[in-house]
């Protein structure tokens, strides 16, 4: 069976050749034993784009063996940091060359606007690759004084080995780069499992891996169903680390599987790194620039149609400005166009799948039935496509499902507070701790509140802006470990201490 398919992108007429097989040892191959296919759906039309091979547990075994062989021979400790840097930069150049076609396929498969995929997701991913290319030849240890007359010690930061990487559907290209770039910079090899909902761009990027000149087996891609491919990687005895971005429930299963297999250093946060869910608070104090705060609040919940782990889905507004700010917020939210990703007017697209669409609507109905007041949205569109318009609830209480649970859609709960202490208490009343934001022109208040908020990332007078050189990760049930920045290098390296005796004589017997 051919391992590619030619598809036409209706909006542009572009014909794209998309790999549909498993990418192992720099080749697209069939499954060793599975005849199953993954149907890939366009969320804007609900039509099938194509189907790709659904990898099996045995396919994961083959991919892991390829990654292990590459780690032991052509990668790992066998290649210089200069060479790793060169190849990462080459990969970034190829992504930059193919930005438009990658963005169009991303929009077709994921639903997000082409301009967002191209200018933000892919643009940031290219920067991410180049950032870690810069680190590849700068991973160094320490020389430690012991006794200058007889001995010394030094440390080496060595690659962990074979990494299983499991990425989500909300940022298919961005999450691919976040995982791949630091792992390759450190000398690790990879078995990647993209989401079964959005596998197409991961397969296209795999083609660029081979074109860039990475040795066979360094990066392998196995599209598969989560309970099969994800579980196989988590349990695998020859996988040294699992990195996962997704739901807290799945993260718990991966942690348990890692501990039951070869530990994967599960007792140490670096070898099972989990970036999980969030129910992030966003606080508007009375001194804030209200117009800008409303812009950032809309960006916080409506960017990527709310399908964002850091979405500022709980907005708390000081009572003295509540009515004025709410009117401003609703007016701005109405201005966002959620439509087809190939329409330049669209600032948001459909949600990714029927299951996600139904989940979001179950929460909207829950908010209505539990007494929250709907001030925007909450009505289904007619016709095809998994479109959900901006939806805002007020008069919420802390026990409502729309306030407690991660919805992962453009649904905002707006509460009010009187004092700074009350705002902090409301914000921290969650099992999650990924992101949080606050708006205030009082510098002392900014410092106090940012210190008190229980989150891995806190934004002051902005929201949802990340940098490749700034660490990102969560507290509490929002995960362990850090991505991005120099901190991510620690997730893919182990420290070896070497004791070197050049003069001390051992006395024996004791």
From TrEMBL:
InterPro entries membership: Ald_DH/histidinol_DH, Ald_DH_C, Ald_DH_CS_CYS, Ald_DH_CS_GLU, Ald_DH_N, Aldehyde_DH_dom
Superkingdom of this protein's organism: Eukaryota
Gene3D superfamilies cross-referenced by the UniProt entry: Aldehyde Dehydrogenase, Chain A, domain 1, Aldehyde Dehydrogenase, Chain A, domain 2
Taxonomic lineage from the root: Eukaryota, Fungi, Dikarya, Basidiomycota, Agaricomycotina
GO molecular function: aldehyde dehydrogenase [NAD(P)+] activity
One Pfam family cited in the UniProt record for this chain: Aldedh
Record-given protein name: Aldehyde dehydrogenase domain-containing protein
Entry keyword annotation includes Protein transport: no
PANTHER family xref list: ALDEHYDE DEHYDROGENASE-RELATED
Active-site residue numbers: 275
Protein family: Belongs to the aldehyde dehydrogenase family.
PROSITE patterns associated with the record: ALDEHYDE_DEHYDR_CYS (PS00070), ALDEHYDE_DEHYDR_GLU (PS00687)
